[in-house]
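Question: Hello, beginner here. Any chance you could explain the protein record under this note? Any guidance would be welcome.
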Amino acid sequence: MEYRRLGNTGLQLSAVSLGSWLTFGNQISDDVAQELMHLAYDNGINFFDNAEGYAAGKSEIVMGKILKDSRWDRDSYVVSSKVFFGAGGTKPNQTGLSRKHITEACHAALKRLQVEHLDLYFCHRHDPTTPVEEIVWSMHNLIQQGKIMYWGTSEWSAQQITQAHMVAKQYHLIGPVMEQPQYNMFHRYRVELDYADLYTGLGLGTTIWSPLASGLLTGKYSNGIPTDARLQMNNLNWLKDLALTDEKLNKVKSLQKIADELGLSLAQLSIMWCLKNKHVSTVILGASKAHQFKENLATLDLTEKLTAEVIEQIETVLDNKPSLLVF
């Protein structure tokens, strides 16, 4: 397993990690979740990603039971949670980034995950209704209390992250050190362009999600949507509309040909492509079946196949490399 530092921090994360969105407490059984976590841990994965909003808190409950039963040394793994969407409650203060919700959500996540501290704690989205000063102070206080080790953001713009750092600098507080953005062959702007100055200027680390574009970059949607696919879930119609466009499906077929020529699955090629970005601290993999997860883990032993020539072929197919607009 390759390990990468989380931005400029001293924390090392496995190059690939295991996430629980849509699967734990929802799409898969608890036994399968345990099998996947043990498979991950035994192969050197040390980061397990979660959030209060995943399966309305059930995802953290499932993961917490596995962590407790597994009796792994606490310093041998990294676990995260995220705050914003809530764990199912819809009343005032049960969502958002107020000091009240950030603090109470942290305590609730600790209880569900059955750990004494969170290694990573993310603001799951930006909250325009809460002053950034309140957010930064709340996270700083949780670090000072030993409840969390590092805090960061998810799907914040570079401007919003910079503002948080300015507040932290002004009041001598601990600012965000990581961002969890979507990143894949079809979703590139933030990681490759918007955050460009933050990697060197602020030492930003990234724990990227959806490297397979919600399954589109596995090729399984090229001939329609399988009945057991996650895009069949009723609450993901919005994702289906974004993912399954004719333009993207045609590109997937061309990318499949490149993968076939290299003796790779399209998923392996897509994960490999994400890993080539030196600003990616870890690629979060989702999984519902052990054999799929094993195949994706094998990517780390095949990265030499992603040569400069292959990257050029991929870029020709994608034709979507972000660049600054010049007027």
User: Anything to note?
Assistant: Residues 3-219+273-305 form a domain with the TIM Barrel fold (CATH 3.20.20.100). The CA atoms of residues 37 and 228 lie 22 Å apart.
